[in-house]
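Hey,
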Amino acid sequence: MSDFNLAGKRALVTGSSEGIGLAIATKLARAGAHVQLHGIEAPDHPLAQAALAEVGERGRYTAADLADPEALETLIATTGPIDMLISTVATQVRQPLGEVTMDAVDLQFRLNFQSALYLIQAVLPNMRAKRWGRIVVIGSVQEAKPHPHMLAYAALKGAQENLVRNLALQLAADGVTVNNVAPGVIVTRRNQAPLADPEYARQVIERIPARAYGEPRDVAGAVLLLCSEAGRYITGATIPVDGGMHI
C-alpha cells in the first residue's frame, strides 16, 4: 500500500546487527527505505555480514560503541542526513538493589538514554528543514512493569518514555513525530538461554495475557506504521508490543 511506501527515505537503525533492530531495518528496507545498519561488531564480523545480507542492497553497515561520545560522532558523520531515526540499542545489567553499582548505572545511562538523546539532537536539523521526520525509540514493558533486578534499566526506559512525550510536544509543528514502542518478551539471542529453563519460562508466560512470546517482526510492524504516512498523525505515543503484559 502507498501509505507504507518509504521509497526515497533514509533511516538509521541503531543496534541493528541482530534481533529486534535487524527486524526493523529489514522491514524498512523492504518498504523502500535506504537503511544505515549499526552494531558494535566489526563490519567483517559474521553478525554484521548476515545483517547486510538480510537487509539487501538498500543497507550499509557501520560499527560503533554508542557508549563512547566519539563513536556517536563517527556514526553521524558516516550516516549523513536521515529522515528516520530508530533507536534500539540498549544493555541490561541485572543487579538486586543491594548490589547495584554506579559503574553499571553509568554504562546503562550512556548507552540506553544519552546515546539516543545525542542522536536525536544530531538528526533534527535535517528533519526540521524538510518538515518531515520520524523518531522512534524502543522502550520496554518495564516502563509499566519494572523488574526488581533491573532497577536502572527500567528507570531509564521510563525516562526515555518521558523524553518522547517532551520532544513530541516540541516537534509536532515541525512535521516530526516522536514515539516509543515498548516490547514485552520478544525472543532474541539475549533471552534464549533463560527462556530455555522450563520453570522460568512458566513464570514468564503466566504474566503474558496472550500466553505467547513475541517475535522481532512484531516490533518491526509497529515501527513501520510509525515511520510511514499511515502513522503521520501519531506522536508522543507509547505503543506496547507485549501480548498484554503491560496491563
